[in-house]
């Protein structure tokens, strides 16, 4: 097995992002939390005030021999709207920003090139506003956020917001899914 790598991504509510990435082959773990915070160990309530500077994010540990960082980013770009500043759907605030927090120069290069290619593709009418910044910190979210989607599938937010993203993943990335998910 190759040495595991880490990706830290923010693209709206971390419940959605965790639900997506935990289903992929090569992903060893996904942890919801708060990235780029100005405050140590912020709480969910503090992050929601917008005063911590933190983004709802996930930290993904993956095996690059099974799933590449390019593929991780492809799925990231495809399963949220990277053109809305500090917002994903009805979730509004700086904590819902689109961001890639790179862990090394190679991740930075790949993320910047992917962002340029996405903008040039004209897939979106508006420009991509995803922030690409060096990783500074990540604080795990409270335990009640773990596996939120899988524990609360009948909850309204899960049915209206997360279900469509999971269905899109199952349809468009079938060959990248863990065997038990297919």
TrEMBL record:
Instruction: Name the EC number(s).
Output: 1.8.4.11
Q: Where is the Peptide methionine sulphoxide reductase MsrA domain?
A: 6-158
The UniProt transmembrane annotation reads none
* Highest taxon in the source lineage: Bacteria
Sorted alphabetically, which InterPro entries does this protein's record hold?
Met_Sox_Rdtase_MsrA_dom (IPR002569), Met_Sox_Rdtase_MsrA_sf (IPR036509)
The family database entries (Pfam families) matched by this protein are listed as: PMSR
Keywords assigned: Oxidoreductase
Q: Name one GO molecular function term.
A: L-methionine:thioredoxin-disulfide S-oxidoreductase activity
**SUPFAM superfamilies in the record:** Peptide methionine sulfoxide reductase
Listed under catalytic activity are: L-methionyl-[protein] + [thioredoxin]-disulfide + H2O = L-methionyl-(S)-S-oxide-[protein] + [thioredoxin]-dithiol; [thioredoxin]-disulfide + L-methionine + H2O = L-methionine (S)-S-oxide + [thioredoxin]-dithiol
Role noted for this protein: Has an important function as a repair enzyme for proteins that have been inactivated by oxidation. Catalyzes the reversible oxidation-reduction of methionine sulfoxide in proteins to methionine.
Question: What does the similarity note say?
Answer: Belongs to the MsrA Met sulfoxide reductase family.
Q: What protein name does the entry list? A: Peptide methionine sulfoxide reductase MsrA
Organism per entry = Dictyobacter alpinus
């Amino acid at each position: 097995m190759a040495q595991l790598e880490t990706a830290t991504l923010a693209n709206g509510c971390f419940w959605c992002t965790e639900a997506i990435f935990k289903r992929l082959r090569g992903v060893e773990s996904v942890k919801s939390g708060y990235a780029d915070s100005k405050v140590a160990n912020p709480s969910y309530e503090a992050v929601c005030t917008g005063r911590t500077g933190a983004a709802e994010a996930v930290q993904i540990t993956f095996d690059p021999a099974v799933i590449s960082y390019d593929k991780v980013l492809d799925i990231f770009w495809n399963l949220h709207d990277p053109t809305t500043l500090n917002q994903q759907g009805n979730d509004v605030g700086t904590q819902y920003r689109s961001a890639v927090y790179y862990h090394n120069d190679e991740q930075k290069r790949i993320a910047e090139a992917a962002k340029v290619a996405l903008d040039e593709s004209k897939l979106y009418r508006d420009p991509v506003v995803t922030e690409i910044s060096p990783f500074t910190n990540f604080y795990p979210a409270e335990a009640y956020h773990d596996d939120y989607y899988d524990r609360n599938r009948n909850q309204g937010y899960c049915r209206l917001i997360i279900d469509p993203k999971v269905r899109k993943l199952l349809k468009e990335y079938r060959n990248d899914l863990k065997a038990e998910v297919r």
